[in-house]
């Protein structure tokens, strides 16, 4: 760009804008006043930027949604991953940072198989009393209102006691498309000890 065509560069607000010299230069005639007057150019640029930034949130806005209990459905837990009567209802899928949740109800004597989670898992007990156990540790009691955290890779199981049912929300994140790795079923001997 030649010196005769450049009146200057505006450097304000971290924006650099070059403007040409108005007058008889054919390339600048249609824009004479705008190209000649840096203050007008800055005002126009800032006004356009402000309008763009103000409109951006509306362009990306999403609406809140509600899913009822009836909409969520559920199913009896698989015999491959649970012992006893277990009802598993999805709460939400992995739409937010690969985090999902399910509401799981264990009838007395029911429990999950041994399993691990690649990121970890939270259990939020919403009703009843149950047990959970980390491999190599003593079985622990969980009650309504308790929150149990299983760190990534820790082999564990959870379920109802032998005489009470329990319902909890299981919240976990997926890694490489998987939120759980299932192991062997918990034996009656392991469960009863």
TrEMBL record:
InterPro entries: Cupin_2, HNL-like_cupin, RmlC-like_jellyroll, RmlC_Cupin_sf. PANTHER family: BLL4564 PROTEIN, RIBD C-TERMINAL DOMAIN CONTAINING PROTEIN. Residues 103-166 form the Cupin type-2 domain. Pfam families: Cupin_2. This is Cupin domain protein. SUPFAM superfamilies: RmlC-like cupins (SSF51182).
């Amino acid at each position: 760009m030649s010196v005769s065509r450049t009146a200057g560069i505006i450097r304000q607000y971290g924006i650099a804008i070059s403007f040409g010299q108005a007058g008889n230069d054919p390339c600048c005639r249609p824009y004479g006043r705008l190209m000649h007057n840096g203050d007008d150019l800055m005002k126009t640029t800032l006004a356009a930027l402000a309008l763009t930034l103000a409109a951006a949130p509306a362009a990306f806005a999403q609406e809140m949604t509600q899913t009822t209990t009836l909409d969520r459905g559920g199913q009896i837990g698989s015999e491959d991953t649970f012992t006893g009567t277990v009802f598993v209802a999805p709460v939400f899928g992995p739409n937010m940072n690969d985090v999902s949740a399910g509401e799981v109800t264990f009838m007395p004597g029911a429990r999950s198989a041994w399993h691990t989670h690649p990121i970890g898992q939270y259990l939020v007990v919403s009703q009843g009393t149950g047990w959970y156990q980390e491999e190599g540790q003593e079985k622990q009691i969980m009650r309504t209102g308790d929150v149990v955290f299983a760190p990534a890779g820790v082999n564990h199981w959870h379920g109802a006691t032998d005489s009470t049912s329990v319902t909890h929300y299981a919240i976990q994140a997926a890694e490489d498309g998987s939120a759980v790795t299932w192991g062997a079923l918990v034996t009656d001997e392991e469960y009863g000890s």
